[in-house]
Amino acid sequence: MVAASTVQIAGLPGRDTECAAVRRLIDALPGAGGALLLWGDPGTGRSALVGYAHRHAGRCQVLAGEGLADEATLPYAGLQRLLDPLLDRADRLAEPQRGVLRRTLAGAGCPADQRLALSMGVLGLLAAVAREQPLLCTVDDVDRGDPATAEVLGFVARRLGHLPVALLVTAGTDAVAGGVPRHRLRALDDRAGAALLAARLPGLAPRVARELTAVAGGNPQALVDLAEALTPGQCRGEERLPETPPLDGALGRGYRSRLAGLPAEARRVLLLAALDEDGDPATLVRAARAAGAGIEALAPAEAAGLVRVGPHRVTLPQPLARAVVVAHAPLAERRAAHLLLAGVLDGPGQLLRRTLHRAAAAERPDPALAAELEAAAGVAGGEAAVTALHRAAELSTEPGQAAARLVAAAGRAWTAGQPRRAGRLLADAAAAGPVDPVVAGRAELIRGELELRCGSPSAATTTLLAAARAVSGVDRLAALGGLVRAGEAVCHTGDQFRYAEVARRVAVLRRPGDPPEVELLTALAAGVAATLRGDHERAGPALRRAVVLGNRLTGPALTPAGLIGAAVAGLLVAVDSAAHRLAERAVEVARARGEVSALPRALELRAIAEYWLGRHETAAETSREGLRIARDSGQVNSAGVHLGMLAVLAAVRADRDASLRRIREIGEGPAPHSRPRALAQWALAVLDLVDGRHEAATTRLSALARSGTGRGQVLIQVMATPYLVEAAAGAARQPAATAALAVFDRWASSTASPSRRALSARCHGLLAPRGSAEAERGFRTALRLHPTDAGAFERARTELLLGRELRRSRRPRDARAYLHAARETFGLLGLTVWAEQATTELRAAGESVGTPELPAARLLTGQQLRIAQLVAEGATNREIATRMFLSTRTIDHHLRNIFHRLGIRSRTELARALH
Asked: Where are the alpha helices (DSSP H) in 613-709?
């Protein structure tokens, strides 16, 4: 046994859930025992969590063991090492358990008919020791040791409920200790990766931390190895970062050790699996057979955690494992394996994969093979096409051709959502030698979009404008696309005054009879420019034309970029349903074509359309999806916009904690006048308004843009104008809202949108003298204009404001009907704070009303709410039990209580109650 440390440390980065589960397991002692299996790939922190458990053991005795690959063929060797400190107390056991336990651990083995007695003996021994003092038993890497030990420990783990024993087991797979609560250790996200790196490299640039987390695949040990291998220039972001974790790091050495212990035949088949990145099991079976082996030869490699063989895919744990396997093989073996794979890939749809393997085996530049690769990549997509173009460049003999292929590869990499890889390919293209000016221009278009989405949007403007000029003579559509993105960049940074230059350059490229995809971009740019200068008479026709053209795109012209442009136009002329359809179509097309880089922007526009349609919950779901994809694809600027939208949507629901959490996630990275910061200020202003801090809300929203200068977030301020007017009216600062409302009015009156005109009328009601006919007329006009089939929240807000106006005008009887309607709607929407405001107004109007009916979430305990949410997401009771480290019986008990509290009878009703 080992002594338990009394020192308490903070949780491991990214492992808060697992640390909490470990603490619950131990803290339940001595009242109740239990077991937990933590499983995951090498380097995910299994041993670190075992160490965390030892440090948290407190007054527990600690019994520690681990599985050793060197003893995997010795039955019960792991059990002997684990229990050796306790064997002097085995005499407390009754026969035959004592005898079989001692004989087995002495090396005599255990006959099949005595395994139950052995398992009961182990359980009895642990129970006897734990009666003196609660016992924490940990077994790290149980799957690496002998299977007999794992079998006994699984038996024991299932029978600890009433004993003061906690058993923590870790493994590389969940195929051990069946029936035991388990949790998979997944990859760290960007924030957890940055926290881990910060502990080792203080002051590391945030961009470098994000890129290193991506290189490591979120693996904690890979991150530590990278941190130890970085140069000072790499830490500052001045030098190119590694493409993989170091092969000689702790994780790489661990993989090499496992690889060295495999039989030669297993290594040969594993090399085939590592080289065939497509992971098709049928291909591997054929290749193994051609090599004179069988797929079953991989069994030792699978047991060692180096490969997973599934029915549909063969995978290696992470890129480092693949790199170690490939690097370990001699060059001749690698070439032979590539040629063998090329030989079995003889189907008509396998041209690209076959050519890639032939190219990987090539010993010298081969222009003909490079041309084959380029042609094969032209009809394919995804990562294989990027690799093919990259390899074609390496096989090229002419520098200009190599550079062109590298630029094409960079474009494919960016489209597939791999910005780091795209950036490296662009750097390689620049170093390849003299580059054709048009090729250089195309490279700059890619670089500019990388800056827009992943880097500095202000730098993106300059880059994109110059690139569009370079390619305008040979590719007008690409030039126009670059100019439209330059316009997006100036809007993102809050420098809308620069959009006029973008529009002028677009107009120069316009031609009579342009095809729809070209005319759409020219109409969009003209419409956006006119909108930003307040010329809605010119903006409206151009933007509506862009919407029409977006709906007409077909064939090769049907691209996410075109649909996104049309959706932008639709939002600017307030045709929300059309804009939503266009954005949704952009999402569908991008997914179908693997254009990951377009998804965050398309989802951003879909969320904005859903906001205007009054579908706030749906908009939040869309933004959460957009945030996940933006983070996965390194698009930090797009991620910031989605975080801002989530902050606003939470603030509108008066969910202070959620809104502030999203604002904190935005951080200090975005520039002061950028779109994410403006959305954050809008969210904070709504929270101010909810709390009655009208002056603070007015100041925040007034500062979003400077009227007449083209600086600041004009379009965000227009969206937030209804809140600005309400805040200014409450703060008696009408001049602060007058200019913004004038801008909003000009826009709203130029659209055919009843909802925009309703908001305009409500704003005028707020600014009219209290008790005047003008104020009442404004509110009643707004109620008449609010669409009946959408926007229930905004209608209820207008009813609340009209009721308040009538109550303050000493017309309480007239006020009550509107206040009741508002209260009912807010209650149905689950907006407790707004419902309470309506209740307060009703009481002030002389009505005796109770507390508004609470939403389902307010009737449940924290644990019950978490279970209910998982049920609403479609999880089964067994899945919920696994995720929450509880028994299925406990989940059943909680679910019965949840149904009783909410007065419902089914999971379907529960999902409806929570939404």
From this structure: 616-632, 636-652, 656-666, 675-690, 694-702
